[in-house]
Amino acid sequence: MRILFITATRLGDAVLSTGILNALLQQWPKARITVACGPVAAGLFRHMPGLDQVLVMRKRTYDRHWLDLWKACVPTRWDMTVDLRGSIITFFLRSGRRLVMRGGRRPGRRVEHLGAVLGLSPAPLPTVWLNAADQQVAARIIPPSSSSAPIIALGPTANWSGKIWPTAHYAPLWQQLAAAYPSARPAIFYGPGPQEAALAQPVLEALPHAIDAGGRFELTETAAMLARCALYIGNDSGLMHLAAAAGTPTLGLFGPSRASEYAPSGRVTRWVEAPGPEGHAPIAALSVERVASAALALLRETQP
Questions:
Q1: pLDDT at 298 (0 to 100)
Q2: Is the N or C terminus of the chain more exposed, i.e. has fewer CB atoms within 10 Å?
């Protein structure tokens, strides 16, 4: 059984697609799967069972990246092709069953749209595939979390400035969390590159006892670190979806992005939205008090 799975360029969408990918693996445990995705998401699949290869789609002018993908895939006779990008490429490949997700934005949860591609309702939850080395790295960076001394992950970055809750809010947020959990410790998560580091730096400076858990880790190592945390609080971003997929209780912060479409999907997830019309609310209007109240409620719910 050979399956071609074409998923998203952006990390968050790729994480959401892991649920249906895992469902395929459960249905065909001996399948050999080729994943096509963008470079940011490629590391997500490196420990996936049944992985044949990851084809990294690097955007080129005039959509030539699709031609590159076709050239890489056309020699193979596929038993199934799953295209979550809504392209026509699978119709130019030798394929048995073809499953193509309709392109464009639609109302409703993205994860449910993905599940519908396989006829699954409710949609399977996203997942992450880790190995022992990932767990070892995570154990070196993130100490054990306990109900009296929880490790609380903070994700102050995002790929669009409109999604970013003001970094100045994290210090007063932590004061409220620490008042309830004096032995709690923050861990700051962010992605690679100077832009992510610059967004995280004010939070690291404001919370000098924080664990620096960003910028230099593989995606699966980051997922393993998130799994060791008692709670994740962060903007609507790929890291938010990764935390939820790792099983970490997750609180998503939403402003102009739509929680009705991209709320975190995981074992225990919640979200808070800035006041105003969905899709147009300024995230700076989301108060520290509201975030702290939701975070503390989630901690009380999940800590033994």
A1: 97
A2: C
| 5 closest CA partner among 47, 71, 52, 40 | 52
| All residues at 6 or more sequence positions from 218 whose CB lies less than 8 Å from its CB, including other chains | 43, 46, 134
What one-character-per-residue DSSP string does 50-75 give? TEEEEEE----GGGHHHHHHHHHHTT
With a cut of 90, say whether residue 304 has pLDDT above it. no
The whole-number average pLDDT for the span 276-280 is: 93
Token pair of 24 as six digits:
């395929």
What gap in Å lies between CA 114 and CA 18, rounded to an integer? 10
Q: Is residue 125 part of a domain?
A: no
Domain that holds residue 172: 132-302
Averaged pLDDT for residues 140-167: 96
Q: Which of 166, 175, 189, 190 has the alpha carbon at shortest distance from 253?
A: 166
Q: How remote is the C-alpha of 145 from its chain's centroid?
A: 22
pLDDT at residue 104 is higher than 90: no
Q: Are residues 293 and 152 in the same domain?
A: yes
Same domain, 154 and 262: yes
Contact (CB, 8 A) for 151 and 187: yes
The DSSP element (H or E) to which 253 belongs, if any, is strand 250-254
In the prediction, which pLDDT does 237 show? 97
